[in-house]
Design brief:
Number of helices: 6
Number of strands: 0
CATH topology: de novo design (two linked rop proteins)
CATH superfamily: 23S rRNA-intervening sequence
Structural class: mainly alpha
Strand content: under 5%
Largest sheet: none
Distance between the termini: 65 Å
Shape: extended
Length: about 140
């Protein structure tokens, strides 16, 4: 990562995304939608900033995972905004592209262990687990 969170490309892009959404939804009558969308996009920025100041890699990664979750929330809401025509297609596509870029950047900032979170284990790991279960549950015949 960078020496300050302000130098982080993901944090800068999250600011661009927030500004775009605030500009578009500034006078919106859909308060519930606007409020949630802006909170989620602000959460991306704030979690990047908060994680940057944490002393351990595990703490930093935890905040990156939260930021990634907020990024996914924004993308989900953008799909809904496009479907319901809350935003014009050009702005929605630009916001969607920014959110995808932010997600990729956040993923690249995470350590390899955190990146694997949510993925299935590899074949070798599955073999080891299967061997372990087999060793634990081998039935020994009763000796009389």
């Amino acid at each position: 990562m960078t020496s300050t969170f302000e130098q982080s490309t993901a944090w800068q892009r999250a600011g661009d995304l927030l500004a775009l959404l605030e500009t578009h939804f500034g006078e919106s009558k859909r308060f519930w939608f606007k409020d949630q969308l802006l909170r989620a996009s602000l959460s991306i920025m704030n979690n990047i900033a908060e994680g940057h100041g944490r002393p351990t890699a595990a703490d930093r990664n935890r905040y990156l995972v939260i930021a990634k979750g907020s990024c996914n929330e924004v993308r989900s809401m953008l799909h809904h905004a496009k479907r319901m025509q809350y935003m014009d297609t050009t702005d929605c596509d630009k916001a969607f592209e920014l959110s995808q870029e932010i997600g990729r950047l956040l993923y690249s900032y995470m350590n390899p262990t955190t990146r694997r979170y949510g993925h299935l284990p590899g074949f070798t790991t599955l073999l080891l687990i299967a061997s372990w279960f087999e060793a634990l549950y081998i039935k020994v015949p009763n000796q009389l």
